[in-house]
Amino acid sequence: MTEHQSLPKNLVADLGARARNAAAMLAALPADTKRTALLAVAEGLRAATAEIEAANALDMARGAENGLSPAMLDRLRLDAKRIAGMADGVAAVAGLDDPVGRVIDTVERPNGLVLSRVRVPIGVIGIIYESRPNVTADAAALCVASGNAVILRGGSEAIESNRAIHAVFAGALAANGLPADAVQLVPITDRAVVGAMLTAEGVIDMIVPRGGKSLVARVQAEARVPVLAHLDGINHVFVHASADQAMAEAIVVNAKMRRTGVCGAMETLLIDRAYPAIPALIAALKVSGCEVRGGPGLRAIVPDLVPATDEDWDTEYLEAIASAGLVDGLEGALCFIARHGSHHTDAIVAEDAEVAEAFLAGVDSAIVLWNASTQFADGAEFGLGAEIGIATGRLHARGPVALEGLTTYKWIGRGSGQVRP
Amino acid sequence: MTEHQSLPKNLVADLGARARNAAAMLAALPADTKRTALLAVAEGLRAATAEIEAANALDMARGAENGLSPAMLDRLRLDAKRIAGMADGVAAVAGLDDPVGRVIDTVERPNGLVLSRVRVPIGVIGIIYESRPNVTADAAALCVASGNAVILRGGSEAIESNRAIHAVFAGALAANGLPADAVQLVPITDRAVVGAMLTAEGVIDMIVPRGGKSLVARVQAEARVPVLAHLDGINHVFVHASADQAMAEAIVVNAKMRRTGVCGAMETLLIDRAYPAIPALIAALKVSGCEVRGGPGLRAIVPDLVPATDEDWDTEYLEAIASAGLVDGLEGALCFIARHGSHHTDAIVAEDAEVAEAFLAGVDSAIVLWNASTQFADGAEFGLGAEIGIATGRLHARGPVALEGLTTYKWIGRGSGQVRP
To answer: Which residue, of A314, A349, B129, B411, has the fewest CB within 10 Å?
Structure first.
């Protein structure tokens, strides 16, 4: 290994060793201690508003110099209001129920051995993110609240902002009896550190990428450490023949247009060939400002649509465009979603309960909804408080992942001298 | 890609596509259908005893020709008794509670949306194993019972036996309304198929290696698909100063000597420097036939011990050898286990409940036991019926993994027209 390669590796090994020590201490802390410390962080963020704004101004100036787009600069920007929002977010996480120590189940074996599965923190979490500096506070709070040590690797364009936010965490945690290494920020911006984190098996227990599709794709492709993420949200709404017309129109328009850039947005509308009000449904979507790209069957009924190409059915637009096509009832919808879906969130609108239940059972996605908008795909809307992300993988945790998904369990057995015959 | 490389890849893609279709069907089957089919498999295995013995005889003859060791030949060998045991195992799995469809939790949101997390099968499981043909029946039964399709890749030395067992599954499953592709056996013995399975992301959802350490190590090193496994069981028993002397001796001897070759066997004995009966404890272990390799502190008290080298503390002997050393109370034991343990199973013997609870909380292993032998680390002993394996990873499932660990969950939301404001 050349020196160039070994530096990031050594850095990650060092951060990881500190994090592992911190994790051992964090795992033993009562909920109240973590809560008090996070409330102090929230207070500290508010008190450090000026310092954080000043640090952010350095990032913004460098960003403008480097020609970042207005959208990227907006993501990077912190002002007093956004900093207050960040502090509120940390305080909200402090108010969540602590999953650590929760007993999943207990059984007494015939020999008297009492076995319980008890929730414990995962250990060391790596967060890899881009330009939004608020992720620093958000992700760190969720990890600390669930007893995990975290290694944060934010975008180089936000490094000054991230350092300022991290300084508040380090100070407030240490002042409240938590290890300062519970939250560590990768101190350098060398991109090779990302690669070293992704391959740090046994050092980092789970990686959560937070950012755009190219970041998530890179992380998923390179990681040897388990990754919690979703790549695409190619979400379907299926309007069944039995759907209430007004409800169908309201849900479809909301699912697509409430916010087009979120991962829970509808991308594809599937309409049962037997649904009696197809033109009105398409009209509602168009009136809301959505471009509708139609399949051939649909265009025979609603002629003035952009034709959908093969590619459209596999596209996550994240803007005011939807593909729409006719399918033959439930079976047609299930086949279509199995072929083109991304296992994120899919919904049916139907009055026929039997069909709806068959849809809920038959669609292999993290979230399946009946008579509700796909835009509910969100940890807060699910009552989880906040989320570290939405997962479309099949193991460990699925859908919105919050504190519980940042824990694992161990088996604890209490005996009275049992030996195995 | 050369033709040589693409053949195994294409084969795995084909097996995977068939498995995915079968999985979709399996996921929808009621528990009774799966149970009936598995009972028919058990009956079929008994009825096919002669055919299976004949197939096994071919493997045994080839194995003897190829110079397999007596131990390997014994693992490979099937006779009427072992086939009956295999059938009993399948019938026992058929009798386990089906986790599929189990509701983990349900919440009604303020807007009336009712959200439940419901257990569903993982999908497609790959099993990679060595010479024991009974794994074919055992693993296939667990996967089918939990609604998963399985791709079995057994050792080339057992291919005829595996084919005969697989034929019984295929026939009995299809005759009872299950897809024949629910259980597939890789039809060729090319070792490159293992590599293709390990990198079949999105095709195979989880790999379970069943076999020796070199197999598990290869799978863990090469896999891009999530792996459920443990590599080592370097398990500790810590005898605290407060331990009951007779209990400590009984547990230590049982943990090491009941069966030395199992992954739950004790490998390292840690004795609190303040424990009052150290020589008697070592004597009990030696009387049971165990070689004790002692650290310097222990040898100062019990002189006639083989000196333990640095390597000994990180060695899984799997035979009648134990390393043993003195530690300074609970804190010393926790540090030692953190440094040398393999996160499998560790136990404390103590009468002091406060110390014991601190040990249970502080040891970061899949299984932690108080006043019980580490040899209980076993799915059947934990009341799980049977196990697909013991996992020392931190995500998804930990410790003995049975039917529940072969499932994941999805979020099901039932609304009445809710849209997100």
So the answer is: A314
Nearest to B418 by CA among B16, B70, B100, B112: B112
Q: How far is residue B63 CA from its own chain's centroid?
A: 26
Residues 6+ away with beta carbon under 8 Å from B417 = A244, A247, A250, A251, A371, A372
Provide the chain A residues 241-260 that lie in CB contact (below 8 A) with chain B: 244, 247, 250-251, 254-255, 258
Query: Rounded to an integer, what distance in angstroms lies between the CA atom of residue A101 and that of residue A27?
Result: 9
Q: How far is A338 from chain B (nearest CA, A)?
A: 10
**What integer pLDDT is reported at residue A5 of this predicted model?**
59
Supply the pLDDT for residue A4. Answer: 53
ipTM of the complex: 0.94
Residue B217 sits at the chain A interface (C-beta within 8 Å): no
> Which residues of chain B make contact with A226, given a CB cutoff of 8 A?
226, 393, 395
What lies within 8 Å, CB to CB, of B304 at 6+ separation is none
- Residue A180 above 70 pLDDT? yes
**In the numeric block, which tokens belong to residue A120?**
């414990």
Rounded mean pLDDT of A338-365?
A: 97
Instruction: Indicate the CATH number for domain A3-228+401-412.
Output: 3.40.605.10
- One-letter amino acid of B63: G
Residue B177 half-sphere exposure toward CB, CA atoms < 13 A:
9
Q: Which of A28, A113, A123 sits opposite B361 (nearest CB)?
A: A28
Residue in this structure with the two tokens 């102090």, named with its chain if needed: A40
* SS3 label, residue B129: strand
Q: Provide the residue ranges of all domains of chain A, joining segments of one domain with +.
A: 3-228+401-412, 235-381
Question: What does each C-alpha distance from B198 to A149, A197, B127, B189 come to in angstroms?
Answer: 30, 22, 10, 15
Closest listed residue to residue B365, CA positions, set B388, B334, B386, B396: B334
Cα–Cα distance, B295 to B292 (Å, whole number): 10
**Residue B120 and residue B28: Cα distance in Å, rounded?**
9
Backbone angles phi, psi at B42, to 5 degrees: -60, -45
Lowest mean pLDDT among A228-232, B95-99, B322-326: A228-232
CATH architecture, range B235-381: 3-Layer(aba) Sandwich (3.40)
What per-residue confidence (pLDDT) applies to A417? 98
User: Binning pLDDT at 50, 70 and 90, where does residue A386 land?
Assistant: confident
For residue A71, the tally of other CB atoms under 10 A from its CB is 9
The reply to whether residue B411 touches residue A419, judged by beta carbons under 8 angstroms, is no
- Mean pLDDT is lowest, of A273-277, A302-306, B347-351, for A302-306
Mean pLDDT of B108-123: 97
Q: How many CA atoms lie within 13 A of A67 on its CB side?
A: 0
Distance CA A130, CA A136 (A): 10
Q: Is A339 on the interface with B (CB under 8 A)?
A: no
pLDDT of residue B5: 59
What pLDDT sits at residue A155? 93
Strand pairing report for B399-401 and B149-153: unpaired
- The average pLDDT across A188-199 equals 93
Minimal Cα distance from B416: which residue of A?
A371
What number of residues does chain A have?
421
Q: Say if the Cβ atoms of B418 and A381 lie within 8 Å.
A: no
Parallel, antiparallel or unpaired: strands A114-121 and A103-108: antiparallel
Contact A395 B408 (CB under 8 A): yes
Q: How far apart are the C-alpha atoms of A162 and A149, rounded to whole Å?
A: 17
Give me the residues paired with residue B325 across strands: B270
Residues in chain B: 421
Instruction: Give me the residue label for tokens 């807007």.
Output: B111
Mean pLDDT of all residues in A33-53: 98
For chain B, say whether A318 makes contact (Cβ under 8 Å): no
Averaged pLDDT for residues A9-38: 96
Scanning B17-36 for CB atoms below 8 A from A yields 24, 27-28
Tokens 């198929």 locate to B193
